[in-house]
Automatic annotation (TrEMBL):
<feature type="region of interest" description="Disordered">
    <location>
        <begin position="1"/>
        <end position="75"/>
    </location>
</feature>
<feature type="compositionally biased region" description="Basic and acidic residues">
    <location>
        <begin position="55"/>
        <end position="68"/>
    </location>
</feature>
<dbReference type="InterPro" id="IPR038186">
    <property type="entry name" value="CHAD_dom_sf"/>
</dbReference>
<dbReference type="Pfam" id="PF05235">
    <property type="entry name" value="CHAD"/>
</dbReference>
<protein>
    <submittedName>
        <fullName>CHAD domain-containing protein</fullName>
    </submittedName>
</protein>
<feature type="domain" description="CHAD">
    <location>
        <begin position="44"/>
        <end position="364"/>
    </location>
</feature>
<dbReference type="InterPro" id="IPR007899">
    <property type="entry name" value="CHAD_dom"/>
</dbReference>
């Protein structure tokens, strides 16, 4: 399959893009980082995540009693944490793409710290979304609607009335395991936000908001070759994917090694995850060159959405497989988890098919 190179926007600047554009972008992202951090602290860093850690039945009981005093603060705190991760990712990705134009020692020291922060803050949300995805899939596969606890509370009937015994127990097992993981991730996030390591990162970002450590050559350097290199890395990584196979629906490629006893992630998923990261770096590089108001490449947008679904389904399948390895679970529970695992691997395959279909389309941009 011939490689499909990415085309720059038609309204790209005629002259060279100097280090001033890079410095302006980094300062803007650093300012957004500090604004999100301030908002997160003002709304209570523990408020939003604590609300997520509560059982669903407890949260619904509070809402029925009219106890919504901290709801707005919780939502704002969650949004602030999301914005904090977003700006940290953009700063880290930009430092990676344009590292020849930045102070090497400072850049290499900042990137892993920003990656640590973004990853630490993202885990709690990831566990919550994974649990919701898996419980929703269990209900869909069982022909039920809503969560088992919700069905029991709303109708007064046991959850087993809408789910098979195996599916209900599988949902309860997943809820215990992922809620525990989410609680631990919440504690880790709180510890991280109060650590000296985080304060060092925040201090470095505060300095970045006012002064970007560019190299002397950055003043006259053109940013476009480095952005083009990021685009080429993405194109090469996509060319290495089995897109011909992914272009055929129901090819079952994502189910290969589905019964393997190896607890390691599927090796075939790694190249797709790498493409997702490279697509993100390419998008950040375009933001540096053309700003956030540049025309949106619909093809790349949809391809990125497909890769996000691929990541989510792959991680959900791994969680179902891990739950199925729990010692001394009932055969019906293990069977339900096996069906759930296969369902999520089919979702992985569907996401690959969607990516292939979007990637092969001609570039379409919206103004």
């Amino acid at each position: 399959m011939a490689q499909q190179h990415l085309e720059p926007p038609t309204d790209s600047p005629a002259g060279p893009m100097s280090g001033d554009a890079l410095a302006g972008y980094l300062r803007a992202q650093a300012t957004e980082f500090l604004r999100s951090l301030r908002q997160h602290r003002e709304n209570g860093s523990d408020a939003g995540t604590t609300a997520r850690a509560k059982p669903r039945t407890e949260s619904r009981a509070e809402s029925r009693d009219g106890s919504r005093a901290g709801e707005n603060g919780s939502v704002e705190s969650v949004d602030a944490a999301r914005a904090l991760r977003r700006s940290a990712r953009r700063i880290s990705g930009t430092l990676h793409t344009f590292r020849p134009l930045l102070d090497a020692e400072w850049s290499e020291g900042m990137r892993p710290e920003l990656a640590w922060l973004s990853g630490t803050l993202a885990r709690e949300h990831a566990y919550a979304a994974r649990l919701e995805r898996l419980i929703g899939a269990l209900n869909r596969l069982s022909g039920a609607a809503g969560f088992p606890a919700q069905a029991a509370q709303d109708t007064g009937a046991p959850a087993k009335g809408s789910l098979t015994v195996g599916a209900a127990k599988a949902g309860a097992l997943l809820d215990r395991q992922l809620t525990l993981a989410r609680t631990r991730a919440h504690s880790a996030a709180l510890q991280a936000l109060g650590s000296s390591r985080f304060h060092a990162v925040a201090d470095s970002v505060a300095v970045l908001a006012s002064e970007v450590p560019l190299t002397p050559a950055a003043a006259t350097a053109d940013l476009r070759p480095l952005a083009a290199a990021a685009s080429d890395r993405l194109t090469d990584a996509v060319a290495a994917l089995p897109l011909v196979t992914a272009g055929h629906p129901y090819n079952a490629e994502a189910l290969v090694h589905g019964l393997s006893a190896d607890t390691a992630p599927h090796p075939q998923d790694a190249p797709w995850h790498q493409v997702r990261l490279l697509l993100r770096l390419h998008r950040y590089a375009c933001e540096v060159l053309y700003g956030e108001d540049a025309p949106i490449d619909v093809r790349l947008l949809r391809a990125g959405q497909a890769l996000n679904r691929h990541r989510d389904a792959a991680e959900a399948a791994a969680a179902a497989a891990a739950a199925a390895r729990t010692p001394r679970i009932a055969p019906a529970t293990a069977y339900a988890l096996g069906v759930l695992h296969a369902d999520q691997r089919h979702e992985v395959e569907a996401a690959r098919f969607a990516f292939q279909q979007n990637w092969q389309k001609e570039t379409v941009r919206t103004p």
